Amino acid sequence: MSTFYRKLLVWSILFGIVVIGVWSSLAERLPPADFTFANESEVKSIDPALVTGQPEGRIAYALFDGLVRNDPETLEPLPGIAKRWEISDDKLTYKMFLRGDARWSDGSPVTAQDFHYSWRRLLNPRTAAEYAYQGWYFKNGRRYSQGGSGITPGDSVEVELNLAPGALNTLRGQVLRGELVRVVEREKDTRDYVVRIEGTEVCFRPTDDVEASERLPDSDCRWCRQVLLDYRKVGIEVIDDFTLKIQLEHPTPYLLGLLGFYPLFPVNRHCLETHGQPAWTKAENLVNNGPFRMQFRRLRDRIRLVKNEHYWNQAAVQLQVIDALAVESLTTALNLYFTDKVDWITDVPAPALRVLMAADPPRQDLNPAPFLCSYFYLFNTTRKPLTDPRVRQALSLALDRAEICSRLMPAGEPPSLSLVPPGIPGWEQQRAAAENNDEARRLLAEAGYPEGKGFPRLEILTNTQESHQAISELIRKQWQRELGISVRTRNEEWGAYNSSLHQGKYDIARRGWGADYSDPNTFVELFTTDSEQNSTGWSNPRFDQLVVEATRETDHRRRFEILTEAERIVLDELPLLPIYSYHSKNMVKPHVRGFYNNARDDHPLWAIRVDRQSRGPNEFQRGSR
């Protein structure tokens, strides 16, 4: 172990003493939790329809339960709210049979209507769910989520009327149904919709509730909130209280995996329509159906979860109280772990990890392993000079990924030239062009910036975490060294970073993407033109067509060939900059059981238990180095 790393580790521990004191003072008046973990950043929401990040996802999986769950080790779908299911021979219809003993935390039953309501809310354009596209697999789900853009004359439609200003934002206005007769284009990309209702043609003009309350429209139209495809045309049908029928646009081999993904978990309608958004997610208001309830949330401190006594599978839930700490600093999290304030941390600062990995004998609480997650940068292709693919290619060719991984990634993360990470059976990785500094300089000169002259100063955006900042600084230096260009770095806390990303307020931005389900489509579809996750401004009609074709292809091998061609386009045009493939860096106390390394680094809290009397390696250490 080098003197430098010894000193750095000692410094981090000493620095952490101050931080530990702060955390201890915050927690000293609380009864201890059975299990405590560092959940990285402050979560921006716990609403399954709005959640997108890993910290939020861990809480969503604890609070809500879907039709299926994932096995904590193999990730195979297990019965959840659905006790069983039937799949038609053509793989287009799924009939889900719900268990009768599933309850909300207020004791009321979880029914098929709860999924019908929740999936409509997910798809509703007014919800603005980034994961709405996960409902596009349902027949007509995409058209419903497109609102007025998804309907054509002859369609059955629903017209949502305006509510009074100040009405709860989770309420819908009165819904009228009819047939769309025509769409009248107006100025400034606005439209009127003429709908035949009970034999009478009525013109509707969408607007917000305030304008609708203050004045009449300047024509014979009526105000409305929105005009959409009739939701009854979407492939979600309630057969009875405990039977739900799903009809798909095309066979979807990973549908059961999707049904275990939190955007498709149900929310309690009565709770939402009583309290509004986001008040319904407060601990004192929340009604949920998962293995735990939220006892309280203290900003910049913790979310405390307690076992849900109404959970259908409560006998399998061993933990009574869990604390999820909002700890953005990896150094702070590590020191909390070393001082036994937490039982699990999800990441370790690189300098400390290098020391810990070299321990002899090997530590019994650290077992890095590859999982399905890619680390890359996004290029905002709407901003010059990143509009020029030669510039993007030059930046990629001048990147020394091996240096990044060897210097900053001690868990063994491999350099990557791909979007889809290794580890999906049957998938053959595509790769962008390898490092070539001469070619990078040639392309940059061809784009009008010989030796970097005249190149505008770009900015790399990351979320606040030591490892991301270290990577951005090294990349900045590499580009300065090889291309002669000047780049600055900027970091933002998690919520602000996500907002900047979604709004395209960046030049180059750090991005990580883990598999939502074990299929290359979960990575490739990120870059379709209408994907909520695609903030790059990049669009390619052929790429979009291939992704659609893949969803329709029933032959597994041919579907992978189509997705391979799509990934090839992305890696040729480079709206992203692949950097490395993830390895997990969890540290888990030996007394923690039910925690497994798996292909998505998912660790459901319902499966975890604590046995402080146990001896020998836990499940996490099986197959360790």
Gist of the model:
With about 625 residues, this protein is of the alpha+beta class. About 30% of the residues lie in helices and about 20% in strands.
What does the model show?
The protein has 625 residues and is α+β, with helices and mostly antiparallel strands. Helix content is 28%, strand content 21%. The protein contains 17 helices and 25 strands. It has a six-stranded mixed beta sheet, with helices on both faces. A six-stranded mixed beta sheet has the order 10-9-8-7-6-11. Helix 1 packs across helix 8. The two termini are 19 Å apart.
Topology at a glance:
Layout (H helix, E strand, L loop, with lengths): L2 H25 L7 E4 L15 H10 L4 E3 L6 E3 L2 E6 L5 E6 L13 H12 L17 H5 L10 E5 L14 E11 L5 E7 L2 E7 L2 H6 L7 E3 L1 E4 L6 E5 L2 E5 L7 H5 L9 H7 L16 E7 L3 E6 L13 E5 L4 H9 L5 E2 L4 H8 L12 E10 L9 H9 L3 H8 L28 H10 L11 E6 L2 H18 L3 E6 L1 H9 L5 E7 L6 H4 L16 H12 L3 H18 L2 E8 L3 E2 L3 E2 L15 E2 L15
Parallel strand pairs: 1-16, 1-17, 9-10, 19-20, 19-21
Antiparallel strand pairs: 2-3, 4-5, 5-13, 6-7, 6-11, 7-8, 8-9, 12-13, 14-15, 15-16, 17-23, 18-21, 18-22, 24-25
Helix pairs in contact: 1-8, 1-9, 10-12, 16-17
